[in-house]
Amino acid sequence: MNWEDILNSFRDPRRGYPVLAARAVLNDGEHYERLIAELERISGDPDEMAESMFHLHAMYLLAQRRRPEPCGCRCALPRSRVRPDEALGDHLTESFHRCVAAVCDDESLIRDFIENRHITEWARQ
């Protein structure tokens, strides 16, 4: 599966999980690195996050690998320009905390996020 097919599979909401795209990312180091770069790119863009499902799929794939990447925690914790409840939907209260815990080995980043009163309380619980 090429990178464009993977991106399209993750961006567009559809029925069912894009299993082939997920396997392609997990089995190919280049695709995995592209996934991280793309997640970092869109993590500060509220418009793109609102239109796409990519970031949700990417967060689960990062968490599945359980490897703290240099940008993993920064990507998993939405930036102040992006409202977490809008970007993550139900994921925010259901599995967000587990995804962050799986990729973030810097407790101070998690603590700063939790203590930031400008971020919706649902994201900080």
What are the SSEs and their pairings?
Elements lengths: L2 H9 L7 H9 L1 H14 L3 H6 L2 H12 L6 H5 L7 H5 L2 H4 L1 H8 L3 H9 L5 H4 L1
Helix pairs in contact: 1-2, 1-5, 2-3, 3-5, 5-9
Describe the structure.
The protein is mostly helical and 125 residues long. It contains eleven helices and no strands. It is globular and about 40 Å long.
Defining traits:
single chain, 0% strand, mainly alpha
Précis, in short:
The protein is an all-alpha fold and about 120 residues long.
What separation lies between the terminal Cα atoms?
38 Å
Roughly what percent helix?
55-70%
Helix-and-strand structural type: mainly alpha
Helix segment tally: 11
**How do the SSEs run, as a string of H and E?**
HHHHHHHHHHH
Total number of beta strands: 0
Shape: globular
Catalogue the unreliable spans: none
Task: Kindly provide the radius of gyration, computed on alpha-carbon positions and rounded to a whole number of angstroms.
Answer: 14 Å
Note the beta-strand portion.
under 5%
Tell me, rounded to a whole number, the average pLDDT.
Answer: 76
Which sheet architecture does the biggest sheet show? none
